[in-house]
Amino acid sequence: MKLDRFTTPDKCGKYALLKLRKGKPVPIGLHQPSGFIVDASMLDMGATPDTEFFVIRLKDKYAEAALMAYAGAAMQDGEVEFAEDVKKLADKAREHPSKRKPD
User: Fold this and answer.
1) What does DSSP say about strands 17-18 and 24-26: parallel, antiparallel, or unpaired?
2) Are residues 62 and 75 in contact, defined by beta-carbon separation less than 8 angstroms?
3) 27 or 91, which is more confident
4) How many domains does the chain have?
5) Comparing 28-32, 34-38, 64-68, 71-75, which segment has the lowest mean pLDDT?
6) In whole numbers, what is the pLDDT of the chain averaged over residues?
7) Given 39, 55, 71, which residue is the final one in a domain?
8) pLDDT of residue 30
């Protein structure tokens, strides 16, 4: 298995981040929750050294270990509340019913 990050023709990652905090809520139906209008300012392709990212799904069989290491680093920085929140994600990853190798 090889890390598959740069699969697009412009060498951006295979995922993009959608920054929902920059969006405008818009109703999408009478009995449905609000959605978002997506514009280019909300989309982060991670195309520069300052915007690169790495996506970890909780179903990834390696997610728990990665998140526990991240929480440990945050704890060493004194970010206790943040570290505890990340540990909760690690717990969810450990208990995920559909664990699998990343694709």
Assistant:
1) unpaired
2) no
3) 91
4) 2
5) 28-32
6) 85
7) 55
8) 62
**Domain of 22?**
1-55
What's the rounded Cα separation, in Å, for the pair 94 and 72? 16
DSSP letter for each residue of the chain? -------STT---S--EE-GGGSEEE---TTS--EEE--GGGEE---STTT------TTBTTHHHHHHHHHHHHHHTT-HHHHHHHHHHHHHHHT-TT-B---
Token couple for 38: 């997506």
Phi-psi region of 56 (alpha: psi -120 to 50; beta: other; left: phi over 0): beta
